[in-house]
Write a structure and sequence with these properties.
This protein has 495 residues and is an alpha/beta fold. It is 51% helix and 10% strand. It is globular, with a radius of gyration of 29 Å.
């Protein structure tokens, strides 16, 4: 006879009374907090998009439930739509939020894709909740970018020079295979009669032709992007020449030459225009048109440089340097408030250098929060005369690292703007402000990449990747709000 009395355990016992899902998790659980937050958000844009669809067919899931499911998934580090769908059966938190429903993974993924423009508005709504909770002060905002791997392998990228070589090789191989197939057909017809199956050359031929078609398609797209990059470059030059021609302080003969040069630059740009020009990155999703975009390396005639590359899996991703290695990915930007490491501005581009991101990111912070930051800090990758001027125009106190001092540089041949910033950062207040930059902006990347495991985008294409990064930053802020000492049920955000 057992000497110990065990606690009751009856896994097959039916419930005598219906249980409440709100009793399945401990009080204060993240799932309950998300239910409260989603109830305060304005989902009008998502609901309007669903209402605009054909009323026939299967009834859609509640948008609040789908949003809560996605938000919770990204908060706990589950980014795959298949894993989210499976978790509605296996994970208590997901079961509570799904309310006993089990949307298919394709439905979850389609919801994420269909309402990507609405997520930008939801990011701002959550940010406003953080502001109300006192987590955002805008006294000091730090900027940084991090390379995040694309949903594509760098080994699936090919340079323009190699495309040309592979195209020539495959054309020759296809011709040889066709000749072999014809010879085999003739031998079989002579031996067995007309209509007999030849040797297994057509399958091999089909593989070669399919690869040749893919390379030609990628090569044509790369040529179109290079022509557009050159045309954009010429139009920018024309704008600069027109500005010079209108400048009364410039010599009359120089103004005349500038005006003539502007006309020539416009003509050269028009000559490179194609009917199949690729759209400007970001224009298709209604966001990011002010952000910098990677320009394909090109020659003066608008043809791609031999080193210009294109990825066959995600054509808009680029090979970028990260921690001394190269990754096929995107440049994810954040602007982080010093008070509680809340992300007050976010963006994604396929341009590796950070420098041109600062002005548009400053504008995003102001648009999201309704005011400008008092002080900003950024590493040496953001320094330029234009960026310092952009901060001055916006009445923002900039602290941007200028990099190491060049050997042999003298005040006579150094950049005065750079030297002024160097002096500013060497002052006691400047040292104190810039010393905080790393502790402000880098922890959010660590929390996103290490704690939640977001090291690679799940979606492909710049528009979709921007949606995913917005959602990642939204959930980062939501976790900050959830973990704040004064966190309570959030009040509705005014429209």
């Amino acid at each position: 006879m057992a000497s110990k009395q065990y606690r009751p355990w009856s896994p097959t016992q039916s419930f005598l009374l219906p249980p409440s899902p709100l009793e399945w998790l401990p009080a204060g659980h993240l799932a309950y907090f998300i239910l409260d937050v989603v109830a305060t958000l304005d989902l009008g844009e998502i609901e309007a998009a669903i209402e605009a669809k054909d009323a026939r067919g299967e009834r859609p899931y509640q948008p609040a439930m789908m949003l809560a499911l996605l938000v919770y998934a990204y908060c706990v580090g589950v980014f795959s739509s298949r894993k989210i769908a499976r978790a509605t059966f296996e994970d208590v938190g997901f079961r509570v939020l799904a309310g006993g429903t089990h949307p298919h993974f394709t439905t979850i993924n389609q919801f994420r894709l269909d309402h990507r423009t609405a997520f930008a508005g939801l990011f701002v709504q959550v940010l406003r909740l953080c502001q109300k909770a006192g987590l955002v002060k805008l006294g000091h905002v730090a900027f940084d970018g991090s390379k995040v791997a694309a949903n594509a392998s760098k080994h699936k990228a090919m340079s323009y020079q190699r495309m040309s070589e592979q195209e020539a090789r495959l054309v020759q191989e296809v011709q040889e295979l066709l000749a072999r197939a014809d010879a085999a057909d003739q031998r079989d017809d002579e031996k067995h009669g007309v209509g007999c199956a030849p040797e297994d050359v057509p399958a091999e031929l089909q593989r070669r032709e399919a690869r040749l078609a893919r390379i030609r398609e990628a090569k044509a797209a790369l040529e179109a992007e290079a022509a557009k990059a050159r045309a954009d470059e010429l139009r920018e030059r024309a704008e600069e020449q027109r500005a010079k021609a209108a400048d009364a302080s410039v010599d009359a003969a120089e103004r005349e030459r500038a005006a003539a040069g502007a006309v020539e630059s416009d003509k050269a740009a028009d000559a490179l225009r194609r009917d199949d020009d690729p759209p400007t990155s970001g224009a298709s999703d209604g966001d990011g048109t002010d952000l910098p975009s990677h320009r394909v390396p090109h020659k003066a005639d608008g043809t791609p440089a031999p080193t210009a590359q294109r990825n066959f899996t995600d054509a808009e991703s680029r090979i970028m340097k990260k921690d001394g290695a190269f990754v096929q990915g995107y440049n994810a930007q954040t602007a982080v408030d010093a008070e509680s490491q809340v992300i007050v501005g976010e963006a994604v581009t396929n341009q590796a250098p950070d420098c041109q991101h600062l002005p548009p990111m400053l504008d995003r912070v102001e648009a999201n929060c309704g005011q400008k930051p008092a002080v900003v800090s950024a590493d040496a990758g953001y320094f330029s005369r234009d960026n310092v001027a952009a901060c001055e125009q916006r009445s923002v106190d900039a602290h941007i690292a200028v990099g190491r001092e060049r050997a042999g540089a003298t005040p006579a041949n150094s950049d005065p703007v750079r030297e002024q910033m160097r002096t500013k950062l060497r002052s006691a207040p400047g040292k104190m402000i810039y010393a905080r930059r790393k502790a402000i902006v880098e922890p959010p990347f660590g929390q996103i990449k290490q704690a939640r495991g977001f090291r690679r985008f799940s979606l492909r294409g710049l528009a979709k990747v921007r949606t995913e990064w917005t959602f990642v930053c939204l959930t980062h802020n939501l976790l900050k709000l959830f973990r704040a000492p004064s966190a309570t049920t959030p009040a509705p955000v005014p429209a």
